[in-house]
């Protein structure tokens, strides 16, 4: 089986790998645990000025990325890779979450389309049946950072990218809860003590304390997650 593939269509290919070339993601990329191909949408422009956008029909501020140019870029990536799902990073999309990351990480990879300006002509999104994914309720200037967020959140789920899979299983969202607080040495820092139970060496009690903390933090900070957790039946392993 080939490695997990990320293929990105962007007007700013020089932004990649960017942070994805650093730390664990960068090492995994170097070691061939995942692959990254970036294509420049502008290479599909046919005029002297390499134009990729035009004024919106109906008027209004900003420019829109042209469907013919984006289509040509997508065909170049999709034709040899029909198995890869296509995602358009878009504030109108369904919010990215850990469940979707797990699904994507378990597949062969992903093709990511990064918008700029006001966005992309709707017809080419419809033509390619692009899934729209948002990384949050705020507007960025382009889809490149969202694409990096999506890639990093997927590749860290691939075997061998992050050291201990246990640490992934216990993280926020994996259990339906936000994570419990962490502490390390020194046991007393600035007059602040580590909770005594964590020094007890009593594994079961430590686990119970962590579950209780995770539940309390989730109930306080994310009533939406808490309601889902309660509906799913408590307790789960934290
Ligand atoms: N006019 C668009 C709107 O109001 O929804 C915003 C366009 S934004 C300035 C340009 C590009 O940035 C978008 O096409 C999209 O690819 C990307 N983008 C911006 N915010 C995003 C977000 N929260 N999630 C995913 N992509 C985003």
How is the topology of this model organized?
Blueprint: E1 4-10, H1 23-30, E2 34-40, E3 53-54, E4 64-65, H2 67-78, E5 86-95, H3 98-106, E6 109-114, H4 122-127, E7 131-134, H5 144-155, H6 165-169, E8 188-189, E9 192-193, H7 203-221, H8 223-232
Parallel strand pairs: 1-2, 1-6, 5-6, 5-7
Antiparallel strand pairs: 3-4, 8-9
Bound molecules: S-adenosylmethionine.
S-adenosylmethionine binds next to strand 5.
- Based on Cα principal axes, name the global outline: elongated
Largest sheet: 5 strands, parallel
**N- to C-terminal separation?**
32 Å
Q: Give me the Rg, rounded.
A: 22 Å
- What helical percentage do the residues reach? 25-40%
Tell me the series of helices and strands, N- to C-terminal: EHEEEHEHEHEHHEEHH
Describe the model:
By secondary structure, this protein is of the alpha/beta class. The protein folds into two domains: 4-155, Alpha/beta knot, CATH 3.40.1280.10; 165-231, Trp Operon Repressor, Chain A (Orthogonal Bundle). It is built from eight helices and nine strands. The strands form three sheets. A five-stranded parallel sheet has the order 2-1-6-5-7, sandwiched between helices. Strands 3-4 form a two-stranded antiparallel ribbon. The longest helix is centred in the last third of the chain and has 19 residues, at 203-221. Bound molecules: S-adenosylmethionine. S-adenosylmethionine is lined by residues 89-92, 114-116, 118-119, 134-136, 138-143, 146.
């Amino acid at each position: 089986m080939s490695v997990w593939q990320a293929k990105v269509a962007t007007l700013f290919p020089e932004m990649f790998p960017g942070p994805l070339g650093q730390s664990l993601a960068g090492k995994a990329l170097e070691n061939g645990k995942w692959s990254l191909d970036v294509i420049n949408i502008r290479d599909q422009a046919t005029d002297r000025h390499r134009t990729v956008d035009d004024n919106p029909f109906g008027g209004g501020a900003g420019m829109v990325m042209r469907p013919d140019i984006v289509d040509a870029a997508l065909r170049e990536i999709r034709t040899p890779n029909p198995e890869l799902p296509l995602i358009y990073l878009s504030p109108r999309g369904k919010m990215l979450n850990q469940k979707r990351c797990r699904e994507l990480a378990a597949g062969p990879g992903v093709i990511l389309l990064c918008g700029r300006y006001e966005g992309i002509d709707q017809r080419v999104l419809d033509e390619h049946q692009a899934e729209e994914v948002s990384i949050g309720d705020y507007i960025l200037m382009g889809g490149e950072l969202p694409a990096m967020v999506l890639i990093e959140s997927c590749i860290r789920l691939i075997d061998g990218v992050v050291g201990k899979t246990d640490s992934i299983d216990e993280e926020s969202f994996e259990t339906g809860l936000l994570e419990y607080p962490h502490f390390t040495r020194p046991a007393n820092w600035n007059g602040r003590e580590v909770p005594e139970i964590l020094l007890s060496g009593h594994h079961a009690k430590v686990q119970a304390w962590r579950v209780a903390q995770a539940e309390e933090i989730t109930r306080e900070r994310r009533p939406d997650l808490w309601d889902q957790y309660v509906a799913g039946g408590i307790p789960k392993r934290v």
